[in-house]
From TrEMBL:
GO CC annotations, alphabetized: cytosol
PANTHER family per the UniProt record, alphabetical: HTH-TYPE TRANSCRIPTIONAL REGULATOR YWGB-RELATED (PTHR33221:SF15), WINGED HELIX-TURN-HELIX TRANSCRIPTIONAL REGULATOR, RRF2 FAMILY (PTHR33221)
GO MF term list: DNA-binding transcription factor activity
High-level lineage: Bacteria, Pseudomonadati, Bacteroidota, Flavobacteriia, Flavobacteriales
Name this polypeptide is given: Rrf2 family transcriptional regulator
Length: 143
């Protein structure tokens, strides 16, 4: 459903949010290890998130990644928009180029319902909520 970079990006930003809520900065190495993601790939994803002001990169020997307090209210839909665009809300469930209400694929009407539920969940779930839900259990981000 999401691209690999979006999956890794979601896992990374949730991990950073959880660490930020404990007043910890986290390094690229720590993030990639904790979310079980290749370091170079994680760096590219974090660069995108930083460029779009969702995470903050602090340079230097005591640096790392954090999420500024006001950004902890960022909804997952915004993270996905930055990493994958809006295709998740508009694409065909079967991946067909031509699929809409006028020319629906066999899954179209069911997929529209699922897509709407997904949009509602992503637009109502913030990084803060997920950071709080983790309660220190980071193993869930490695699955």
């Amino acid at each position: 459903m999401f691209s690999k970079s979006c999956e890794y990006g979601l896992r990374a930003i949730i991990f950073i949010a959880q660490q930020t809520s404990k007043n910890n900065k986290v390094s690229l190495n720590t993030i990639s290890k904790e979310i079980d993601s290749p370091q170079a790939f994680t760096a590219k994803v974090l660069q995108q998130l930083t460029k779009n002001n969702l995470v903050k990169s602090i340079k230097g020997p005591y640096g790392g990644f954090i999420i500024e307090e006001e950004k902890m209210n960022t909804k997952l839909s915004e993270v996905i928009r930055v990493l994958d665009g809006d295709a998740i809300y508009t694409g065909c469930g079967l991946g067909l180029k031509q699929c809409d209400a006028n020319s629906p694929c066999p899954l179209h009407h069911r997929f529209v319902e699922i897509r709407n539920d997904l949009r509602n969940m992503l637009e109502s779930t913030s990084l803060q909520i997920l950071a709080n839900d983790l309660n220190g259990d980071l193993t869930i981000l490695k699955r």
